[in-house]
């Protein structure tokens, strides 16, 4: 069964099975391409199912085409999963770089032994059909002190081609391995990028870009100390000073999102020079539940966000195309204690705030509470185990809540902080109650239009 009460309206979801990391995003001419990891059989089979890359394209972020499957785990080098990677457009060709996962049968720990993580490249002239899998690197090409966990190639060009790989060494230290190449085929190891003190055992999904002349290194460190009410794995960035090839320093790690469901952020540059981030609205190894699994699907991708840099941090806000989803608009002065019922969960709620201590009750049992220093997001039943997340923030002047059938993305002070969560309540629970006066702009939003393309023979 594909449809059920929790299907989202304006987020990308899997047709069936899992969705995880977005990958290979780019804009070619007037079309944006978003690939993502998918295990179509995940909830149907007991054993492990290798993931593949699916593909959405869009010109306006409202009408999407579900393109044919881009990459299948059909070779000796990726037979146990087409893992994450990146896209690179050059001279009318789109190249995808990815990790081919191979697991050997046997009594292995799959960290030190029993696994292959190969770097592969494919190319396409129509940006839809990808051919000619080329093996670029195997574990033998990584430094000797690496475990078998080295993956998720991120390729970019400066004076030559560079590739960043997420890695775990044999001392369980997470880091990035940097490689260089003149032709995208022969790769030479040049550098380890890591923190002075160990910061987690593995850094997944690297990404790297410049934003307002700052170098930003993105990754998902696993195994860092988990404070109370924090996610098990993190996804964020370091500001990098100096030259990653020689002398560099990493500033402190900053999380992109302090909600429950956010991981594997990847970015791309649009033709009009916006740095756009897409992430997985989900997270690995979490203790909370996803009730949609009974309907044979789970997570989604977040609403794409534009990144800007201010006050030594990244601000994130939904891309301007999101405005085109708006249908009805309503302005309301909310007063203390009154319960206001709005029409639909599929909406944007913009709140202007003056009082620096407040509580907002939303939907069935979700609460946002601010004490002047810490904003706390809490859920009860509708969180399915999602309990509490906290964010430190000195002042709050506005909050934007992008609400969909079973998700909320909460942007504080126009994206200074963000909290993303899934929420499983019913369409009857469309209420808001505030503890002090504030004003609300409520916009009903419309659904994405998704066209499914038939698989074509290659
Ligand atoms: C991140 C990740 C990647 C890997 C992929 C495999 O979510 O673990 O490091 O390529 O997922 O599913």
Structural features, described:
This protein is an all-beta fold. About 0% of the residues lie in helices and about 50% in strands. It has no helices and 35 strands. The strands form 7 sheets. Strands 23-34-25-30-31-32 form a 6-stranded antiparallel beta sheet, with no helix packed on it. The model has no long low-confidence stretch (mean pLDDT about 95).
For the biggest sheet, the summary is: 6 strands, antiparallel
The tally of beta strands, per DSSP, is 35
Low-confidence runs of at least 5 consecutive residues: none
Tally of helical segments: 0
Structural class: mainly beta
What is the overall pLDDT average?
A: 95
Distance between the termini: 29 Å
The radius of gyration over CA amounts to 22 Å
- Describe the global form: globular
Q: How much strand content do the residues show?
A: over 45%
* Helix fraction bin: under 10%
Strand order, largest beta sheet: 23-34-25-30-31-32
